[in-house]
């Protein structure tokens, strides 16, 4: 992992001190509410439905065990509302039917950050100081600026990797941090990056998507897409450059953002994202960016051209952890036998090995996903105690390093094959061994109307109801790989547009309804080219959603083509693409009619 | 940190007085740009100007930062580059770094609060209108 030097550390301390100063001026009235808002947002502080919310940046999703422990400490010591705030929140949510509003929790988000829902703003400065002790912060996790860069959770360890994106992500983290020109863009700006052939970072759904590749001469560079985004106008990014030499990635994005800063719309916040500019200007935007890039190189001298030495300096932080190499040379034959025997007698273990354990570029190692999708806890939620357990697991089994995934799980990237049985036992004891990665219950869900001020409907009770309905592992395996994504409003933090099944909360006359979409894709090989799902008709009431999902899945089971062998079986998304949405729509509509007749 | 354009802070009255004095001198020239104007289209006027004034209609409208950068770095303007409009304490560092050399504070900004913000960071991660990126400096960490 990147190690913070004295400059980085002093920078964060200064940032924390600056925020403390800003809070004080806001508290004594020197800063108005409007003047303070963008300052707190650019430090990760929102004001939500019931309480403030802190979003902590996890640059390119990489976390150390020490950072996990401090996140656990923040959850334990600070994620606690004042009694009056909490009782008001409970009263309000009970009226909607919510029974749980957990405190002392952290939440992993679809942009691989970590959120806390209950920290009083009066304690904000103390929390920022505490986070700074492990090089963490909330810089640019909100606001109309370049946000935290998200990345492939298997960066540096995936067998399908072309080049490790993390050194570039780190260099760009530095470049984006407090960039003076781009702190007040028309709207937020999100970059995602991958260096693998499989796109696990949903790059084409981002304002800028970067994919490392080699050109025909063997030079390394990026394919650059621009103008992707969800929200009320889902757009897949357009190719801005098929190949950009890596040295110029910051010069080039500077050109793209500068043109956006000057010409992006500021009169309507729903039309202010770069995707709208790219759509309205098309080739004109691309020409402007290319001309600005040329000027940056030829006239300005390429101020952010990355020198070879700088890339090498940063790359040195991302070598394989020491200690793993020595151990690899002495594989333990007993461990392999014990694992095989245990798996033969323990179906849960066999399933976990199949679902949650992936190949590593090093044959002696494995990539293991700890699933944060289980009963009684929201997708991506981790209690203070669980964060401590994860930190211990990460120390014992993954060289002190973890990754947050955009599907709201945690990945251990450096697990020795001999440790799988011990890891499974420990993860199971902590409730983090659901063998459901990529299955229906491994769903994405935003915090929704239980926490978020923007939400039109609650997401978590829908996630919970579907999770409760689908607890039979045989049934889940039979349904197979499927992406179910739930957002509580059109802002799409739950990525409903890219779900094979997408569920979107909408407000109709003050009550919660849910629109269902089918056929969306985040752009992985299994899901097909990135695209937004299609709506299957009028929205469903909360009580109908699970049945609608059930009807859709039944339709899939009856329609899927089968080659006999399991491996040849059509997946849900393949069937949707082959037969279209009509049969699913008809089945879901029958549920609606039934429920309404019974009512 | 030594900046090439240590930003000079003015009150509205000081700014008005300077403008009045300037307008009496025949050779003086002040170019004022709205924030939706491309400064590259006013190359000659800017080259002849002693001062260019860029406007922030609201502190959350960041277009003038790009204008300032282009005027300094692309057009090589060396005169006074002034921020007017909704100029608050917490955006002064960004102004200084994008090339502004003076700023007219709104009346409710405390001058000490403003100066404190300018002294907070010794250095930054990226290059700006006045500085190279750290990895291009000989003393880079």
UniProtKB/TrEMBL annotation, chain B:
<protein>
    <submittedName>
        <fullName>DUF934 domain-containing protein</fullName>
    </submittedName>
</protein>
<dbReference type="InterPro" id="IPR008318">
    <property type="entry name" value="UCP030820"/>
</dbReference>
<dbReference type="Pfam" id="PF06073">
    <property type="entry name" value="DUF934"/>
</dbReference>
